[in-house]
Amino acid sequence: MTLSLQDVPLAVLLGIGATAVMDAWLLLLKRLGVPTLNFAFIGRWVGHLLRGQVAHAAIAKAAPVRGELAWGWLTHYAVGVAFAGVLLSLQGAAWVHSPTLLPALAVGMGTVAAPLLVMQPAMGSGFAASRTPTPLKNCLRSLANHTVFGLGLYLSALVIALISR
Questions:
Q1: How far apart are CA 68 and CA 44, in angstroms?
Q2: Do the Cβ atoms of 78 and 64 come closer than 8 Å?
Q3: What does pLDDT average to in each consecutive run of 10 residues of the chain (165 residues)?
Q4: What is the domain extent for residue 107?
Q5: pTM of the entire structure?
Q6: In this structure, are residues 96 and 18 in contact, taking their beta carbons and an 8 Å threshold?
Q7: Number of domains in the chain
Q8: Where does the sequence pass through the membrane (predicted)?
């Protein structure tokens, strides 16, 4: 299946909802003392990416980029919307009106490939956080976070289904 132009608003709603659920989870973790990602680093990476630099030895040591926190949050939500589009492409827009948990969780868990295989290496943490002090712990934390995103896809679809009835 493919995502049609008329399904884009659904992808936007699903993506924003699922990303907000993930953010609530990350806020809870932060309040419990669990380290979470600084979205300014995502914005810093995107800012440098727009200037042609893909990889960094350590994104925290890279030159700051004007508006990096805003860029980070914008990127975070845009990627969430894109991943929601993937779910709709695989399941079809009808899934939103009668959602099931498994496809949402599967897509959510699958999205962990983006940080493990693209963002972490590009930001200096290595593939699957291999250059961090606790790679397995970091990978499992990423998987948990992206599973929560998948749950957010499902919950967002439930809300849309309830509202649209």
A1: 5
A2: no
A3: 88 98 98 94 97 96 97 98 97 96 98 96 96 96 98 98 93
A4: 5-164
A5: 0.95
A6: no
A7: 1
A8: 7-28, 70-90, 102-123, 143-163
